Amino acid sequence: MSTTKLTTHHGMVDLLPEDTEKWNYIESVIKDVARRYHFQEIRTPIMEPTELIARGVGQLTDIVSKEMFAFNRGDDQYVLRPEGTAPVARAFIQHHMAQRGGVQRLFYIGPFFRAERPQKGRQRQFHQFGAELIGAKGAIADAEIIAFMMEVYRRFGIENIKLKVNSVGNPSSRAAYKKALYEYFVPLQDQLSDISRNRLESNPMRILDSKEEQDQPLKEKAPRITDYLEKESRDHYEEVQQHLKQLGIPFETDPFLVRGLDYYTETAFELISPDLGSQDALGGGGRYDLLIEEIGGAPAPAVGFACGMERLLIVLEALNIELPSAEPPDVYFVTRGAPAAKWALETMPGLRSKGLVCTMDYSGRSIKAQMKDANRQQARYAIIAGEQELEEQIFTFRDMSESTEKKAAMADIISEICQK
Ligand code: HAM
Questions:
Q1: Cβ < 6 A, ligand 1 pocket
Q2: Cβ distance 166 to 225 under 8 Å?
Q3: Collapsing DSSP states into helix, strand and coil, what is residue 384?
Q4: Strand 125-134's sheet: what is its strand order?
Q5: pLDDT, tens digit, for every residue of 399-414?
Q6: Please, which residues have CB within 8 angstroms of residue 25's CB and are 6 or more apart in sequence?
Q7: More confidently predicted of 419 and 153
Q8: E strands, 152-227, where?
C-alpha cells in the first residue's frame, strides 16, 4: 500500500463545514438579489464540448490557449467549463429559449476551472455567481445587469469598490482601433515586455491589459478606443453612463479596459477592490451581441456579468464583515446507558419535525464528556436521561446558557423550548 499523502490538486480547495455555512449564507443573499431582479437560475453541465469554449471564448485568449482542462473520451472532446457565458448561450440555443418570448433573465452560481498559476484569489477550481440577460439591445439592460452586480456587494456592506466601464465598440470600430494600436506600438516594440510584444501581432488590444511595469508608460499615450467608436456605439455607451448616474452607481470610465474574453461588443466593465491584492477584479462582464449567432443561434443581443465567490469572501474577511456562523443545536441529548441512548434516538425525530435542531452522543461516553461536547457545540439545552428518568418519564432539562436545571416531562420540555 502506498503511503503517499493524498491531497487536493494545487489550486483546488476543500470547503469544510465552517466554510460551507458562510457559502450557503452568501449564496442565499445572491439568490435573494436575483429573485428581486426577477432572474431565474440556470444550471448547465460542468463539462462542455471543447469546441463551444474555443469558438465562444476565442482561440487566442489565455483561457482557451493555455488554461483549459480538456480531454478526449471516445470521439468526444470535453472541457471543464472555464466560464459560464458560452454555456448559457449554448443552452439558450439548444432549448430554443428565444421562442419563450421576451427577454431571458438567467443567473448561475457554481464551480469553474482554469489551469492558472494558483495564488491568493486565483484558483484552478473557483466559483462564480453571474447573470445573463439575453434578448435585449438597449442600454437599460446594461445598466440593469450592472445594478444587479453592485447590489450584491451593497447587501454585504462592501462599499470600497471601483466600477470601471468602457466600450469596446462593434467589430468594425474595433478593427480600426486594433490597426491604430498596432501602428502605435510597432515602433515601440523593443521597449515592450515580452508578453506584450507577443501580443502585438495576435491581439494588440491585450497589451492594454498588461500589468508589466515597463508597459505602463507606453500604454499612457496609446490611442483610445473611444476615439474610434462609431456613432451608434458612442450613443449606446453614453446612454449606459447616463443610466448608471441616474441609478446612483458610481463608476469610472477607463478607455484601456479590455477583457480577457473575445466575445465582448460595446459595453465592457470590471469591478475592482483594493482589498484583493494583485488579483484585484471582483467581477466583470459586458455586452456580447454576436456570441449567440457565432455559436450557431439566431442573432440575439445579450449582456451579463460574473463575479468570483472566493474573491468576495476575501474582501468580506479583509473588512471583518461577520457572516452568520453554524447554527448550534437546540437540544443535545445526554444519555446514560444503552436504553436511554435508544430512547434519545427515537425521541429526536419528533422534535426535529417541530423544527428543532437535535443531536446526541453516539459512542456511550461519560456524562461529563457529553456535557463538555454539548458546551463545545453551543447547544441551547441539554436533556439528560438515564434508566431512572426513563422509568419515571421525568428528565433533567438544562438551560446551557443560564446554567439552570429542572426536572420535567418531555411534553413540558418541548413546549418550553418551542416558546422561546
Ligand atoms: P472573467 O472576468 O473571466 O469573466 O471572470 C469573472 C470573475 O471570476 C473574475 O473577475 C474573478 O473574480 C473570477 N475569477 C476568474 N478566474 C478566477 C480564478 N482562476 N480564481 C478565482 N477567481 C477567478 C467571465 O468569466 C465572463 N463569463 C463574465 C461575463 C458574464 N461576461 C458576460 N457575462
A1: 83-85, 114, 116, 121-123, 126, 128, 130, 132, 260-261, 281-286, 288, 304-308, 310-311
A2: yes
A3: strand
A4: 40-41, 104-113, 125-134, 302-308, 281-287, 265-272, 162-167, 252-253
A5: 999 999 999 999 999 9
A6: 323, 324
A7: 153
A8: 162-167
How far CA 391 is from CA of 133, 384, 388, 409, in Å, comes to 65, 13, 5, 12
Nearest to 371 by CA among 405, 345, 332: 332
Nearest in space to 158 (alpha carbons), one of 43, 14, 29:
29
Residue with CA at minimum distance from ligand 1 atom 12: 308
Q: Can you tell me which residue has the cell 469591478?
A: 271
What are residue 233's phi and psi, to 5 degrees? -65, -40
Check if the beta carbon of residue 327 is closer than 8 Å to that of residue 24. Answer: no
Helix, strand, coil tally for the chain in percent (to 5):
45, 20, 35
Q: Which of 67, 83, 271, 273 to mutate to test the pocket of ligand 1 (most atoms within 8 A of CB)?
A: 83
Q: pLDDT of 170-187, one tens digit each?
A: 999 999 999 999 999 999
Per DSSP, the three-state class of 266 is strand
Q: Please tell me the predicted confidence (pLDDT) of residue 419.
A: 86
The minimum-distance atom of ligand 1 relative to the CA of 82 is 25
Domains and CATH numbers, the chain: 17-170+230-318 (3.30.930.10), 331-419 (3.40.50.800)
pLDDT for 1: 64
Q: How confident is the model at residue 2 (pLDDT cuts 50, 70, 90)?
A: low
Is residue 197 within 8 Å of residue 215, measured between CB atoms? Answer: no
Cell digits of residue 160: 470600497
